[in-house]
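Quick start: what a row looks like.
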Amino acid sequence: MLIGDVARRSGVSARMLRHYESLGLVRPMGRTEAGYREYSSEDIRRIFHIESLRSLGLSLSEVGRALDDPDFKPAELVDDLIRQTRERIARETELLTRLRRIDAAEPADWEDVLKVVALLQALGSESVGRRQRGALSSAVEVPVPVEALVEAALSETDPNVAGALRWALARSGDDGLALLAEGIGSPVAEVRKRAVQSVAEIPGGKATAVLQDALNNSDIVVRRCAALALGTRGVADAIPTLIDMIVEDTNDADAADALSALASDPALAEQIATRLVDCLAHSTIGSSARRRLTEALAGIPGITTSRALADLSHDEDRAVALTATYILGLRNAR
């Protein structure tokens, strides 16, 4: 079979077939009477083998070794090809993500494109200062796609940069909530914490709904952060978690402040007071926890609280009695 026929049937150009021959990959030994190359069926089979190996990413020199070296073992080369392919996919995926984010920013001209690229690079910089400047700029200068902000916020370890990123996300409104909700469900504890902290700073009913869902999260850190945020938003579902935080001496002052904010609603004030009193009466609660619960009553108005404090002023635990007496004195002085 002549080279033109082989090219048509194999899909390999005549030029490439000649290149294969120059490299010694294919050596058609036959010649026609006119002196043209004539490929045998074995030559054609070898061409298909070459193309099959090339489709796996092998170089032509590697193809030659694979076909001609009897001691050649493919396992190591295949492993190397897998590694190279994964690296290439990672690079291409990163590029695709960057392009999508630039497209989402809806740049009007190339100057806008360059600004977005610069901000994206800043957010991924190893420099803490540069990341912080990028986060602040994204909120007030060039709008960066919220996906990039969420990704940066969920991976940021520096507290100052993290705060700037949360501020930028809060200014973006509800756009990042779906991605942050996914972050709350992450298998990585730090990511879950950063996600719920970010949601806590986003105003509005949609963010509140995400925080309410977070109250049922298996991660106690997530539940506590959500409860603190919900307390300031007037959501009664946060009350049990906030009281538990006071008992467990975990951000107890913040939890008491959140209960006090909730207690601005008279109906909730009575509910909170009743729960605190019930907790104080529980036999398993230790002395320090009872004192903290008594202190928490200071921010809860209403008759239930006043009666409880009057009773607690005679408590067997001197620390509790003194705390209750002091709070009663403050209330009576108003």
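That is the whole record. The beta strands are 30-31, 37-38. The first strand starts at residue 30 and ends at 31.
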